UniProtKB/TrEMBL annotation:
<keyword id="KW-0862">Zinc</keyword>
<feature type="binding site">
    <location>
        <position position="104"/>
    </location>
    <ligand>
        <name>Zn(2+) 2</name>
    </ligand>
</feature>
<feature type="binding site">
    <location>
        <position position="180"/>
    </location>
    <ligand>
        <name>Zn(2+) 1</name>
    </ligand>
</feature>
<feature type="active site" description="Proton donor">
    <location>
        <position position="82"/>
    </location>
</feature>
<dbReference type="GO" id="GO:0008270">
    <property type="term" value="F:zinc ion binding"/>
</dbReference>
<feature type="binding site">
    <location>
        <position position="134"/>
    </location>
    <ligand>
        <name>Zn(2+) 2</name>
    </ligand>
</feature>
<feature type="binding site">
    <location>
        <begin position="209"/>
        <end position="211"/>
    </location>
    <ligand>
        <name>dihydroxyacetone phosphate</name>
    </ligand>
</feature>
<feature type="binding site">
    <location>
        <position position="181"/>
    </location>
    <ligand>
        <name>dihydroxyacetone phosphate</name>
    </ligand>
</feature>
<feature type="binding site">
    <location>
        <position position="208"/>
    </location>
    <ligand>
        <name>Zn(2+) 1</name>
    </ligand>
</feature>
<feature type="binding site">
    <location>
        <begin position="230"/>
        <end position="233"/>
    </location>
    <ligand>
        <name>dihydroxyacetone phosphate</name>
    </ligand>
</feature>
<feature type="binding site">
    <location>
        <position position="83"/>
    </location>
    <ligand>
        <name>Zn(2+) 1</name>
    </ligand>
</feature>
<protein>
    <submittedName>
        <fullName>Fructose-bisphosphate aldolase, class II/tagatose 1,6-diphosphate aldolase GatY/KbaY</fullName>
    </submittedName>
</protein>
<dbReference type="InterPro" id="IPR000771">
    <property type="entry name" value="FBA_II"/>
</dbReference>
<dbReference type="InterPro" id="IPR050246">
    <property type="entry name" value="Class_II_FBP_aldolase"/>
</dbReference>
<dbReference type="InterPro" id="IPR013785">
    <property type="entry name" value="Aldolase_TIM"/>
</dbReference>
<dbReference type="GO" id="GO:0005975">
    <property type="term" value="P:carbohydrate metabolic process"/>
</dbReference>
<dbReference type="GO" id="GO:0016832">
    <property type="term" value="F:aldehyde-lyase activity"/>
</dbReference>
Amino acid sequence: MPLISTTPMLEQAKREKYGIVAFNVHSLDSIYWVLEAAAEMKSPVILQTTVGTVKSLGAENIVKVATAAADFYQVPTGLHLDHCTDYEVIKKAIRAGYTSVMIDASKHPFAENVQQTKQVMDLAASLGVNVEAELGKVGGVEEEVVVSEKDAQKAVPEECEEFVALTGVPTLAPAIGTAHGIYKGEPNIDFDRIEEISKLVDIPLVLHGGSAVPEEDVRKCVALGMSKVNVSTELKNAYSVAIREHFAAQPNSLDPRAYLQTAKEAAKEMVISKIKIVGSEGRISPLTIK
Ligand code: 13P
């Protein structure tokens, strides 16, 4: 089974009112862990990488491994480039086989964001590659993208409507009060704003900063049309803690299969819990199940 565009996947999720989790992966092993868990849940899934991960692992390697794993586990899988600010990197990712890309021009004024997004749409749309853009500014740290609390800015619903009309993007990430990373306090999600945006914009929305958001809040966001839910920090934490605990108990451990197995188990548990929250369990067409 080849990697698939996230556009029909997210449109179906929006219509049927469930969410798709996009898991940030940081190693080639973790691609297998996520897809094995998704296969057990019979759930479609999105793998996503930051530009930093592309630099560290190579876009071609990521595409090859993701394709092989999607085929092995028979899971409908999209591969997304997260938070990219560089048109050249987007071009390379699409050429390598990414099925979805984010052009993050949210730090620029509205007109510049429109212009950069249109440029990526010109490249991607005819190839069936999904494009995600961001409006407002999501706070927190996502590798190279750092937005302080005071610079975080919620998206303006009327601007979302105008932005989608001008660019034709199939997916939009409006900032609505979540932040990347683990929260110090409770996230302050503006549900009224999501509802207003959803009324004006008839495309799947994206929830950034999905880690450490209370389950009920994630469900509410999905019900209001946030069909893609991004999770990075919690997944990374889960397997890093497992590896740390392994070495705390066995400081002289030498066998990568042993500590990677504990990492895999922790990662799978996290993936399964997130899939259950967004309601994508059992959403794989019976035709694709082995
Ligand atoms: P978290 O690290 O908060 O899960 O955010 C992930 C994200 O939004 C990636 O774009």
